[in-house]
Amino acid sequence: MPPVKMTPPKEVLLPLSQHIGAPAAPVVKVGDEVKVGQLIAEAAGYVSSPIYSSVSGKVTKIESYLASNGRSIPAIRIQSDGLMTPDESIAPHPVTDIDSLILAAKESGLVGLGGAGFPTAVKLDALKKGIIHTVVINGAECEPYITSDTRTMLEKSDMIHYAISLIESCAKDVERFIFGVENNKPECIHELVRIFGDNCKVSVKPLPSLYPQGAEKILIYNTTGLVVPEGKLPADVGVLVINVTTLAYLAKYVKTGMPLVERCVTVDGSAVKEPKNVIAPIGTSVQDVLDFAGGLKSEPGKILIGGPMMGNAIYTTDTPITKTTGSIVALNVKDSTLDEPTNCIHCGRCVSACPMSLNPTAFSKALNIEILEERIARLEEYHVNLCMECGCCSYVCPANRPLVQNNRLGKAAVRSYHDHQSSLK
Amino acid sequence: MRDVLIALAPSAIAGVVFYGLRAAILIAVCVCTAILSEFLFNLITKKKQTIGDLSAAVTGLILALTLPTGTTIWQCVVGSLFAVIAVKCLFGGLGCNFANPAATARVMMLIAFSSSVTAGGANAMVDIVAGATPLAALKTGESALPSLIDMFLGLREGAIGEGCIVAIVIGFIYLVIRRVIKWETPVIYVGVVFLLSLAIKQDLTVALYHVMGGGVVFAAVFMATDYVTTPINRLGKMIFAVGCGVITVLIRFWGSYPEGASFAILLMNILSPYIEKMCAKKPLGGVKK
Q1: Per-window interface: B 226-265 vs A, CB < 8 A
Q2: Rounded to whole angstroms, how far apart are CA atoms B34 and B41?
Q3: Nearest CA in chain B to A355
Q4: pLDDT tens profile B81-96
Q5: A231 neighbourhood in chain B, CB within 8 Å
Q6: Which of B109, B207, B205, B198 is closest to B159 using CA atoms?
Q7: Chain B nearest C-alpha distance from A354 (Å)
Q8: Disulfide: which of A13, A78, A403, A413 matches A360 by Cβ 3.0-4.6 Å?
Q9: Is the ipTM of this complex over 0.90?
């Protein structure tokens, strides 16, 4: 079903940190009148991204709110006048070379819309260095329930085409473009093949519909056969991975000049009355999106931002959707309750399920080692930093053990140990 | 665990059919002692009750099926108690045992109660008076051997559940279909025993007797596939199976005992963590530190 555009909410809360990197710095103050697409916070540093107003109205507060991950995040609250008047200075952003492309990516406020939130301009910077030979476009959308990327591939294929042609003309070193799409989306594969049929540099690779097909390293391995070594980036093997929705938005920005102020959010889950895709202004509260989508049919056990595997549960529906929110999954009480964990029986299902060929039981055991240095050494010996927290291990564990949570803890332990060590030097 | 009990059922039923009421009593004693010991241990140590996971019942049943009817009731009690308390509970309960509880208890009983436990039990379906088991006969060459078909169906002297090969195979197929176990370990274990016996004795018939005699098939399906005490990775499991096969054959041909399966399992269990470490799969992109 094509996405439905939401009626403007009464207010939006725009976090200044919706991306990996330094939070943006506000350029408006309380009481200012703003319009859609107007800059309200500028990028602060190299790895950062600007924030634009998603509604027209007045800035009511610049305050910190408690996010569901426990962090206090600064944000700008804007009361909407319901008119959605666009900013007058919005104009197409012509791109002639790689520098103007990167500038366009930066000024659009684009970050990885697949959920990672890495500032796109910083990622595209690698194209300048002449080291990228393959661009992999992530159309896998492997998490259950989410279909916003599917809609992009079906409805915005012309934008995707335009974006590819931009990159092709600006970055001559790129030899090929590969679209990685799960084979449970045959219409998307068909559409992409149709639109890129004449371009010999572009290929569409159908991939098995197995979670986590969309994980960066897995996608690179399955489309190119290349392995990204531990601690290195895809750019180190000459690959750039970009989400298909991010690509489409880049094209839209270049053509219209309207920065990232709204996005498609899939509303689904066992507690949702009418699952659908909604185009919502960034900063709209989850409650407003749910209300627009038709509401819930039962008391939710959990409401997740993101998918059921890697999404995070929110503690209040006043939580705003951000640039990286691809879906809101509301699960009923039955689906949200897990049985009590029991002892690990060493069955090995987690080892078989891990896409990175890690041993989750080793991490859980390592956390119980009393001597700190030994604990960290054991965690690193089993390569805990390769864990991408996909959740496959927890999902298959017959003893309901919190494996991915333990992995996360292990990674944090290693990180804080090394931070502490370097601060001592 | 429930699936394992279901897979053991054909062997248990065959055992009772062949060996009569005594077999049923021994099975009941072992299973009840196992469950009761775990229950009391958890009660006394103020831990959460775990008998619901049925692992104690499985341990009791597996142990019972490796015993001949000549075992006395109190010997069964001691064996089950040892299996559950000494090998499992004292080490931390489910998932923490260092070796297969039933195999270890079997070895203990072999050493402590050797006369009752090595002799075969009188098989109601067979016209042979309680005497040497086929394996013992192979070793000493004294008594007559049952035919190969009889061996496959379980019409011979021996432990309650180890004789009826066809019942064990049914259990094996069930466990593989239900994805509880992988097929590699039992097949490789039995295969190695067959090939080595063939190589040593140069006689196909003798090799087949070796495969079907004693407790190899039973141990291969129900003990060598235990999750806790065997390597977690596929290659490790295969090496484990080969090791079990080799040790079983070594003990059978050059050791004093006619049967080596329980010892093989126990010894390979002890090596299992090292095998697992050696066979760990390289992570995607993992760099050696």
Answers
A1: 227-229, 232-233
A2: 11
A3: B284
A4: 999 999 999 998 888 8
A5: 287
A6: B109
A7: 9
A8: A403
A9: no
